[in-house]
Amino acid sequence: MMDNYSSSYEGITVPPRPTIRTYQYTEGQVNKIRTSDDETIGLLTLAFQSAIILHSRALVTILRDDLFDIFEEIIFKEFEGYEKLLSLAKSRYALKNPPAVSSLRI
After folding, report:
1. Considering the domain boundaries, does residue 28 fall inside one?
2. For residue 37, how many other CB atoms are within 10 A of its CB?
3. Which domain holds residue 68?
4. Whether residue 12 has pLDDT greater than 80
5. What DSSP element (H or E) covers 68?
6. pLDDT tens by residue, 54-97
7. Does the pLDDT of residue 16 top 90, yes or no?
8. In sequence order, what E strands does 6-92 have?
9. 76 within domain boundaries
10. Looking at the 3D structure of the chain, how many domains does it have?
């Protein structure tokens, strides 16, 4: 609907759709945005890291023993899930190498 709309008198311009993101397999998936394995694994990695940081901060501030045990169990399950995600990413070669940093001055 908005693809063919161009209103120059209002100053509104609609950019064209990115062709890479709207690549379609079948007719039923016309407007679906597809992501690659790298993007999905990157988002899941970020989500796991954020959850582990948040729950470890909560673990530090807990005073009751029963809540401490619950959060400790949650954190260990998150670590197990994070390790599984990293092994999946390694098997699919989806992890990017960190930038090479050196203290050598030229």
Report:
1. no
2. 12
3. 36-91
4. no
5. helix 65-91
6. 988 988 898 899 988 988 898 999 999 999 998 988 888 777 77
7. no
8. none
9. yes
10. 1
